[in-house]
Design a protein that fits this description.
- The chain is α/β, with parallel strands linked by helices.
- It has 13 helices and 13 strands.
- The strands form 3 sheets. It has a 7-stranded mixed sheet, sandwiched between helices. A 4-stranded antiparallel sheet has the order 9-10-13-12, with helices on one face.
- It binds 4'-deoxy-4'-aminopyridoxal-5'-phosphate.
- The site of 4'-deoxy-4'-aminopyridoxal-5'-phosphate has 13 residues, from helix 4.
Length: about 350
Amino acid sequence: MSVLGQSPRARPEIQALGAYRLAGGESAPVKLNQNECPHDWPEEVKAEVARRLLSRPWNRYPPLDGRAVREALGRSCGVDPEMVAVTSGSNEALLALVQAFACGRRVVLVRPGYSLSVSLAVVGGAAVQAVPLREDFGLDVPAMAQAVSDPDVALTYLASPNNPTGVAFAREDLLAVLDAARGLVVLDEAYADFAGQSLVLAVREHPHLAVLRTFSKAFGLAGARVGWVVARPEVIAAVRAALPPYNLNLFAQEAALAVLAYPDLVSARVAQVVRERQRVYRALQRLDGVQPYPSQANFILFRTPLPAPVVLQRLLAHGVLVRDVSGQPGLERCLRVTVGSPEENDRFLDALARSVTP
Ligand code: PMP
Protein backbone atom coordinates (compact mmCIF):
# COMPACT_ATOMS: atom_id res chain seq x y z
CA MET A 1 0.00 0.00 0.00
CA SER A 2 1.46 3.38 -0.96
CA VAL A 3 1.56 6.41 1.31
CA LEU A 4 -2.02 7.52 2.21
CA GLY A 5 -3.43 5.14 -0.43
CA GLN A 6 -2.48 7.52 -3.29
CA SER A 7 -1.21 6.50 -6.72
CA PRO A 8 2.49 7.21 -7.23
CA ARG A 9 3.25 10.37 -9.18
CA ALA A 10 4.73 10.18 -12.68
CA ARG A 11 7.95 12.05 -13.48
CA PRO A 12 7.20 15.80 -13.27
CA GLU A 13 7.93 16.34 -16.97
CA ILE A 14 5.40 13.62 -17.87
CA GLN A 15 2.76 15.19 -15.61
CA ALA A 16 3.41 18.51 -17.34
CA LEU A 17 2.89 16.98 -20.79
CA GLY A 18 -0.57 15.43 -20.50
CA ALA A 19 -1.95 12.99 -23.05
CA TYR A 20 -2.03 13.85 -26.76
CA ARG A 21 -5.25 15.57 -27.74
CA LEU A 22 -6.70 17.26 -30.80
CA ALA A 23 -8.49 20.61 -30.62
CA GLY A 24 -11.79 20.47 -32.50
CA GLY A 25 -12.24 16.73 -32.05
CA GLU A 26 -11.34 13.69 -34.09
CA SER A 27 -13.82 13.77 -36.90
CA ALA A 28 -15.85 16.09 -39.12
CA PRO A 29 -17.55 15.83 -42.52
CA VAL A 30 -14.44 17.45 -44.05
CA LYS A 31 -11.48 16.25 -42.00
CA LEU A 32 -8.34 18.21 -42.89
CA ASN A 33 -6.52 18.31 -39.55
CA GLN A 34 -4.06 15.39 -39.61
CA ASN A 35 -2.38 15.39 -43.02
CA GLU A 36 -3.86 12.04 -43.92
CA CYS A 37 -4.34 10.80 -47.48
CA PRO A 38 -7.83 11.83 -48.67
CA HIS A 39 -8.47 8.42 -50.28
CA ASP A 40 -9.00 5.08 -48.60
CA TRP A 41 -7.59 1.91 -50.18
CA PRO A 42 -9.80 0.18 -52.77
CA GLU A 43 -11.99 -2.62 -51.45
CA GLU A 44 -10.00 -5.28 -53.41
CA VAL A 45 -6.77 -4.36 -51.61
CA LYS A 46 -8.47 -4.46 -48.22
CA ALA A 47 -10.02 -7.84 -49.13
CA GLU A 48 -6.58 -9.16 -50.07
CA VAL A 49 -5.23 -8.12 -46.62
CA ALA A 50 -8.26 -9.71 -44.94
CA ARG A 51 -7.69 -12.96 -46.87
CA ARG A 52 -4.05 -13.06 -45.82
CA LEU A 53 -5.04 -12.41 -42.20
CA LEU A 54 -7.56 -15.25 -42.32
CA SER A 55 -4.86 -17.68 -43.35
CA ARG A 56 -2.46 -16.68 -40.54
CA PRO A 57 -2.49 -18.09 -36.99
CA TRP A 58 -3.68 -15.41 -34.53
CA ASN A 59 -2.50 -17.39 -31.51
CA ARG A 60 1.15 -17.03 -32.61
CA TYR A 61 3.36 -13.96 -32.43
CA PRO A 62 3.85 -12.19 -35.77
CA PRO A 63 7.18 -12.43 -37.64
CA LEU A 64 9.88 -10.85 -35.49
CA ASP A 65 11.09 -7.41 -36.69
CA GLY A 66 8.56 -7.43 -39.58
CA ARG A 67 11.14 -9.24 -41.68
CA ALA A 68 9.18 -9.36 -44.94
CA VAL A 69 8.25 -5.68 -44.63
CA ARG A 70 11.91 -4.74 -44.03
CA GLU A 71 12.95 -6.70 -47.08
CA ALA A 72 10.28 -5.09 -49.27
CA LEU A 73 11.17 -1.62 -47.98
CA GLY A 74 14.88 -2.25 -48.49
CA ARG A 75 14.16 -3.14 -52.13
CA SER A 76 11.94 -0.09 -52.67
CA CYS A 77 14.41 2.36 -51.04
CA GLY A 78 17.51 0.76 -52.59
CA VAL A 79 19.17 -0.26 -49.29
CA ASP A 80 20.02 -3.52 -47.56
CA PRO A 81 17.23 -4.82 -45.19
CA GLU A 82 19.83 -4.63 -42.37
CA MET A 83 19.58 -0.84 -42.83
CA VAL A 84 15.82 -0.81 -42.14
CA ALA A 85 13.80 -1.11 -38.92
CA VAL A 86 9.99 -1.08 -38.98
CA THR A 87 7.98 0.46 -36.19
CA SER A 88 4.42 1.08 -35.09
CA GLY A 89 4.25 4.48 -36.81
CA SER A 90 7.33 6.63 -37.23
CA ASN A 91 6.59 8.23 -33.86
CA GLU A 92 7.64 4.95 -32.23
CA ALA A 93 10.88 5.05 -34.23
CA LEU A 94 11.67 8.54 -32.96
CA LEU A 95 11.01 7.49 -29.37
CA ALA A 96 13.27 4.44 -29.77
CA LEU A 97 16.04 6.62 -31.26
CA VAL A 98 15.80 9.09 -28.36
CA GLN A 99 15.87 6.25 -25.84
CA ALA A 100 18.79 4.53 -27.58
CA PHE A 101 20.92 7.63 -28.15
CA ALA A 102 19.79 10.59 -26.08
CA CYS A 103 18.29 9.49 -22.73
CA GLY A 104 19.82 11.76 -20.06
CA ARG A 105 21.41 13.93 -22.78
CA ARG A 106 20.29 16.73 -25.10
CA VAL A 107 18.13 16.82 -28.25
CA VAL A 108 18.27 19.81 -30.64
CA LEU A 109 15.23 20.56 -32.78
CA VAL A 110 13.71 23.58 -34.53
CA ARG A 111 10.80 25.90 -33.74
CA PRO A 112 8.29 26.15 -35.32
CA GLY A 113 8.40 22.39 -35.80
CA TYR A 114 6.67 19.10 -35.19
CA SER A 115 5.24 19.51 -31.70
CA LEU A 116 5.17 15.78 -30.96
CA SER A 117 8.94 15.61 -31.45
CA VAL A 118 9.31 17.73 -28.31
CA SER A 119 7.03 15.44 -26.28
CA LEU A 120 8.75 12.28 -27.55
CA ALA A 121 12.18 13.68 -26.68
CA VAL A 122 10.95 14.51 -23.17
CA VAL A 123 9.29 11.09 -22.72
CA GLY A 124 12.53 9.48 -23.92
CA GLY A 125 14.36 11.22 -21.07
CA ALA A 126 16.22 13.92 -23.02
CA ALA A 127 16.53 17.66 -22.43
CA VAL A 128 15.30 19.74 -25.38
CA GLN A 129 17.01 22.71 -27.00
CA ALA A 130 14.94 24.50 -29.65
CA VAL A 131 16.66 26.57 -32.34
CA PRO A 132 14.41 29.16 -34.05
CA LEU A 133 13.97 28.94 -37.82
CA ARG A 134 14.59 31.98 -40.03
CA GLU A 135 11.62 34.23 -40.76
CA ASP A 136 11.05 32.44 -44.10
CA PHE A 137 10.98 29.14 -42.11
CA GLY A 138 14.31 28.03 -43.61
CA LEU A 139 17.11 26.62 -41.46
CA ASP A 140 19.32 29.13 -39.65
CA VAL A 141 22.43 27.17 -40.62
CA PRO A 142 25.03 29.05 -38.49
CA ALA A 143 22.81 28.80 -35.38
CA MET A 144 22.07 25.13 -36.05
CA ALA A 145 25.71 24.29 -36.76
CA GLN A 146 26.72 25.91 -33.51
CA ALA A 147 24.03 24.10 -31.50
CA VAL A 148 24.61 20.62 -32.96
CA SER A 149 28.39 20.74 -32.68
CA ASP A 150 28.14 20.77 -28.88
CA PRO A 151 29.33 17.36 -27.64
CA ASP A 152 26.39 17.21 -25.15
CA VAL A 153 23.94 17.08 -28.05
CA ALA A 154 23.25 13.39 -28.64
CA LEU A 155 20.49 13.76 -31.23
CA THR A 156 19.29 16.42 -33.68
CA TYR A 157 15.76 16.13 -35.04
CA LEU A 158 14.65 17.80 -38.27
CA ALA A 159 11.54 17.16 -40.35
CA SER A 160 11.81 18.01 -44.05
CA PRO A 161 9.33 19.07 -45.28
CA ASN A 162 8.80 20.56 -41.86
CA ASN A 163 5.45 20.44 -40.07
CA PRO A 164 3.52 22.78 -39.68
CA THR A 165 5.38 25.15 -42.02
CA GLY A 166 5.48 22.88 -45.11
CA VAL A 167 9.00 24.01 -46.03
CA ALA A 168 11.46 21.42 -47.34
CA PHE A 169 14.92 22.49 -46.19
CA ALA A 170 17.59 23.03 -48.84
CA ARG A 171 19.71 19.92 -49.36
CA GLU A 172 22.94 21.88 -48.81
CA ASP A 173 21.58 23.27 -45.50
CA LEU A 174 20.72 19.76 -44.30
CA LEU A 175 24.16 18.51 -45.31
CA ALA A 176 25.78 21.46 -43.49
CA VAL A 177 23.93 20.51 -40.28
CA LEU A 178 24.92 16.88 -40.81
CA ASP A 179 28.58 17.88 -41.22
CA ALA A 180 28.52 19.98 -38.05
CA ALA A 181 26.67 17.43 -35.86
CA ARG A 182 28.57 15.36 -33.32
CA GLY A 183 25.61 13.13 -32.42
CA LEU A 184 22.91 11.35 -34.42
CA VAL A 185 20.88 13.39 -36.92
CA VAL A 186 17.31 12.16 -37.33
CA LEU A 187 15.75 13.42 -40.55
CA ASP A 188 11.99 12.88 -40.55
CA GLU A 189 10.81 12.48 -44.14
CA ALA A 190 7.13 11.82 -43.36
CA TYR A 191 6.16 14.24 -46.17
CA ALA A 192 9.10 13.72 -48.56
CA ASP A 193 6.94 12.08 -51.25
CA PHE A 194 5.11 15.39 -51.73
CA ALA A 195 8.39 17.30 -52.09
CA GLY A 196 10.07 14.88 -54.48
CA GLN A 197 13.36 15.06 -52.59
CA SER A 198 14.95 12.71 -50.10
CA LEU A 199 18.25 12.13 -48.31
CA VAL A 200 17.54 8.44 -47.76
CA LEU A 201 20.49 7.26 -49.84
CA ALA A 202 22.83 9.61 -47.97
CA VAL A 203 22.71 7.14 -45.04
CA ARG A 204 25.33 5.14 -46.94
CA GLU A 205 28.01 7.86 -46.56
CA HIS A 206 26.77 9.34 -43.27
CA PRO A 207 27.05 6.90 -40.36
CA HIS A 208 25.29 9.36 -38.04
CA LEU A 209 22.19 9.94 -40.21
CA ALA A 210 18.87 8.16 -39.57
CA VAL A 211 15.94 8.84 -41.94
CA LEU A 212 12.36 8.31 -40.75
CA ARG A 213 9.58 7.42 -43.19
CA THR A 214 5.93 6.52 -42.69
CA PHE A 215 2.99 4.72 -44.29
CA SER A 216 0.62 7.28 -42.71
CA LYS A 217 0.77 10.03 -45.36
CA ALA A 218 1.48 9.32 -49.07
CA PHE A 219 0.74 5.60 -48.61
CA GLY A 220 -2.68 6.31 -47.08
CA LEU A 221 -2.30 3.78 -44.28
CA ALA A 222 -2.45 5.87 -41.08
CA GLY A 223 -4.86 3.34 -39.54
CA ALA A 224 -2.32 0.53 -39.67
CA ARG A 225 0.41 2.52 -37.83
CA VAL A 226 3.57 1.61 -39.73
CA GLY A 227 6.75 3.62 -40.00
CA TRP A 228 10.34 2.79 -40.76
CA VAL A 229 13.89 3.99 -40.15
CA VAL A 230 16.72 3.82 -42.66
CA ALA A 231 20.23 4.06 -41.22
CA ARG A 232 23.53 2.21 -41.04
CA PRO A 233 23.23 -1.31 -39.54
CA GLU A 234 24.83 -0.22 -36.21
CA VAL A 235 22.13 2.45 -35.74
CA ILE A 236 19.39 0.01 -36.79
CA ALA A 237 20.70 -2.55 -34.29
CA ALA A 238 20.40 0.09 -31.53
CA VAL A 239 16.82 0.96 -32.58
CA ARG A 240 15.84 -2.69 -32.56
CA ALA A 241 17.42 -3.19 -29.15
CA ALA A 242 15.43 -0.23 -27.79
CA LEU A 243 12.09 -1.41 -29.25
CA PRO A 244 9.89 -3.98 -27.57
CA PRO A 245 9.92 -7.20 -29.63
CA TYR A 246 6.94 -7.85 -31.93
CA ASN A 247 6.14 -4.13 -32.03
CA LEU A 248 4.53 -4.51 -35.47
CA ASN A 249 1.35 -6.56 -35.25
CA LEU A 250 0.13 -9.04 -37.85
CA PHE A 251 -2.42 -6.65 -39.40
CA ALA A 252 0.12 -3.84 -39.71
CA GLN A 253 2.63 -6.15 -41.39
CA GLU A 254 0.13 -7.54 -43.89
CA ALA A 255 -1.33 -4.12 -44.70
CA ALA A 256 2.10 -2.58 -45.32
CA LEU A 257 3.17 -5.48 -47.54
CA ALA A 258 -0.07 -5.28 -49.52
CA VAL A 259 0.11 -1.54 -50.29
CA LEU A 260 3.78 -1.73 -51.29
CA ALA A 261 2.55 -3.68 -54.32
CA TYR A 262 0.72 -0.59 -55.66
CA PRO A 263 3.40 2.07 -56.22
CA ASP A 264 1.61 3.50 -59.26
CA LEU A 265 -1.59 4.14 -57.33
CA VAL A 266 0.43 5.83 -54.56
CA SER A 267 2.27 8.10 -57.02
CA ALA A 268 -0.95 9.03 -58.83
CA ARG A 269 -2.50 10.09 -55.52
CA VAL A 270 0.61 12.06 -54.56
CA ALA A 271 0.50 13.83 -57.95
CA GLN A 272 -3.14 14.77 -57.37
CA VAL A 273 -2.33 16.19 -53.92
CA VAL A 274 0.54 18.22 -55.40
CA ARG A 275 -1.79 19.65 -58.09
CA GLU A 276 -4.45 20.43 -55.51
CA ARG A 277 -1.87 22.02 -53.20
CA GLN A 278 -1.07 24.51 -55.96
CA ARG A 279 -4.75 25.24 -56.60
CA VAL A 280 -5.60 25.70 -52.88
CA TYR A 281 -2.51 27.89 -52.36
CA ARG A 282 -3.53 30.22 -55.23
CA ALA A 283 -7.12 30.37 -53.98
CA LEU A 284 -5.89 31.26 -50.47
CA GLN A 285 -3.70 34.02 -51.92
CA ARG A 286 -6.82 35.54 -53.48
CA LEU A 287 -8.74 35.56 -50.17
CA ASP A 288 -8.71 39.00 -48.53
CA GLY A 289 -6.50 39.14 -45.43
CA VAL A 290 -5.39 35.49 -45.71
CA GLN A 291 -1.69 34.78 -46.14
CA PRO A 292 -0.74 31.24 -47.20
CA TYR A 293 2.87 30.02 -47.00
CA PRO A 294 4.42 28.00 -49.85
CA SER A 295 4.43 24.29 -49.04
CA GLN A 296 6.13 21.18 -50.34
CA ALA A 297 4.08 18.87 -48.13
CA ASN A 298 0.44 17.71 -48.25
CA PHE A 299 -0.76 20.65 -46.13
CA ILE A 300 -0.66 24.44 -46.20
CA LEU A 301 0.05 26.85 -43.35
CA PHE A 302 -1.95 30.08 -43.52
CA ARG A 303 -2.41 33.22 -41.43
CA THR A 304 -5.75 34.98 -41.05
CA PRO A 305 -6.75 38.38 -39.62
CA LEU A 306 -8.65 36.69 -36.74
CA PRO A 307 -7.54 34.65 -33.73
CA ALA A 308 -6.96 31.05 -34.86
CA PRO A 309 -9.42 29.46 -32.34
CA VAL A 310 -12.19 31.70 -33.73
CA VAL A 311 -11.44 30.59 -37.32
CA LEU A 312 -11.22 26.93 -36.18
CA GLN A 313 -14.69 27.11 -34.60
CA ARG A 314 -16.26 28.96 -37.54
CA LEU A 315 -14.87 26.38 -39.98
CA LEU A 316 -16.17 23.60 -37.73
CA ALA A 317 -19.63 25.16 -37.90
CA HIS A 318 -19.35 24.57 -41.68
CA GLY A 319 -18.25 20.97 -41.08
CA VAL A 320 -14.55 21.60 -41.82
CA LEU A 321 -11.87 20.55 -39.35
CA VAL A 322 -8.36 22.05 -39.65
CA ARG A 323 -5.51 22.45 -37.15
CA ASP A 324 -4.86 25.49 -34.99
CA VAL A 325 -1.07 25.84 -34.85
CA SER A 326 -1.01 29.38 -33.48
CA GLY A 327 0.54 28.25 -30.18
CA GLN A 328 4.02 28.03 -31.68
CA PRO A 329 6.37 31.03 -31.72
CA GLY A 330 6.02 33.08 -34.91
CA LEU A 331 2.72 31.41 -35.87
CA GLU A 332 0.25 33.87 -34.33
CA ARG A 333 -3.18 33.59 -36.05
CA CYS A 334 -1.95 30.61 -38.10
CA LEU A 335 -3.80 27.43 -38.98
CA ARG A 336 -2.80 24.40 -41.02
CA VAL A 337 -5.02 22.71 -43.56
CA THR A 338 -4.39 19.29 -45.09
CA VAL A 339 -4.74 19.15 -48.87
CA GLY A 340 -7.75 16.87 -49.35
CA SER A 341 -9.71 15.63 -52.35
CA PRO A 342 -10.80 18.34 -54.86
CA GLU A 343 -14.31 18.33 -53.34
CA GLU A 344 -13.01 18.64 -49.77
CA ASN A 345 -10.71 21.47 -50.82
CA ASP A 346 -13.62 23.33 -52.44
CA ARG A 347 -15.66 22.98 -49.26
CA PHE A 348 -12.75 24.22 -47.17
CA LEU A 349 -12.14 27.25 -49.41
CA ASP A 350 -15.82 28.13 -49.41
CA ALA A 351 -16.06 27.75 -45.61
CA LEU A 352 -12.91 29.82 -45.06
CA ALA A 353 -14.19 32.65 -47.26
CA ARG A 354 -17.28 32.77 -45.01
CA SER A 355 -15.23 32.45 -41.79
CA VAL A 356 -12.63 35.21 -42.17
CA THR A 357 -15.02 38.06 -42.85
CA PRO A 358 -15.38 39.78 -39.44
N1 PMP B 1 6.48 13.06 -38.49
C1 PMP B 1 5.87 14.21 -38.81
C2 PMP B 1 6.69 15.41 -39.16
C3 PMP B 1 4.48 14.28 -38.80
O1 PMP B 1 3.85 15.42 -39.07
C4 PMP B 1 3.71 13.14 -38.48
C5 PMP B 1 2.21 13.14 -38.52
N2 PMP B 1 1.56 13.88 -37.62
C6 PMP B 1 4.39 11.98 -38.13
C7 PMP B 1 5.77 11.96 -38.16
C8 PMP B 1 3.59 10.81 -37.65
O2 PMP B 1 3.88 9.70 -38.30
P1 PMP B 1 3.34 8.26 -37.88
O3 PMP B 1 1.87 8.24 -38.18
O4 PMP B 1 4.15 7.42 -38.79
O5 PMP B 1 3.65 7.98 -36.44
